[in-house]
Here is the input.
Amino acid sequence: MVWAFATVDKRHDALFQAMGDQVVAHDHLRDFKPQELSNTVWAYATAGVYHPQLYEKIGKHIVEVGHLRDFRPQALSNIVWAYATAEVSHPKMFQQVAKAAIQRKEDFISQAVANLLWSYATMGIIDKQLFSSFVPIAAKLMDKYNNQDLGNIAWAYAVADVDAPTLFNQVAKAAIQRKEDFISQAVANLLWSYATMGIIDKQLFSSFGPTAAKLIDNYNNQNLANIAWAYAVVDVDDLTLFNDHFINECLKMRDRFSLEELRQLHQWHLWQTKEKSRTGLPEALQDRCYKEFISEEPTRSKLQDDVVEQLSSIGLDPNEEVLMDSGYRIDALVEVNGKTIGVEVDGPFHFIGRSKAPLARTILKRRQVPSIDGLELVSVPYWVWNQLGKNQAKKQEYLHRLLGLDTVLDD
Here is the structure.
């Protein structure tokens, strides 16, 4: 019954509450078929009726069933979509569904794939095996997705930090062909995803400039910040998008921006004013963004401590966590033959998944610090440093070469 009400977009809270209470009071759910369980939680999520006890009861039952071999792919997708939409966390159930979905992945249709991946990313349950297993499945269904599906798939893989270049390439091609039909949220999700993954697809961003511009009045605060930041990362300027209208929209949203969004806007402001010599944010908003950008406490790692120790061992007296005029902090500054050089210690979280491709924040910093602060940067990637093991002599030799101190070694 609740499924019927949700299907015709009819909300009847009292009825939903009573039906939910009845299910919760049921001694067991073995009488429910898998499709009935799926339809029930889907109906509550679709109708927007919150019944936490119902979700907990059904989630617990699904975990107890274990194998889930009688659940069709659409049912599996609908179940996790319902929990994600209702913002109800049930990690054990998500784990069970992931195992079943991987086994049945070849039978998933396009919308079920998109909803499944979106649900796991939305709930922050990053099952790497699930996402990796579905890369070829998601790719082969490319011509079946609607625009929202395309944006959701890209967004899910970006949130999961799973390296899938072929899939992203296919999504970009499909999105460019249908760009005129994208709604505001799908545009923001799509562009943010490519920038976050450090995928510098200039054709995608250039193509979406006019589309993003015509939707300017439909964006919320997060959309505005994400789009501005994404274009700054990819370094594709668009006068139809970034102009007085865009800045006015930012001003309207100024009291709604989160701390992270203010940091994103600071990087966009740097890009527009320092790299492109164009108008940026008004002074008051610019000030807020800068203060928030520099307020983030730097985090140290054993890797960074080791590199700094070796820099000291070769007599360079590194100055740590130096705040530059741009607002960026540099891991270590050293003087080499009268020249100041910034040493960045790039751990695993600076790169996409397990690849050696840098993430957006690394790309921006590597570009903006030399451009704005006039400081040469060198990177110590974690995989290079780890290969040197505990051999201090090799580590020091590596730093000599990196910083151009070979002549010192020869002496």
Observations:
- DSSP finds 22 helices and four strands in the chain.
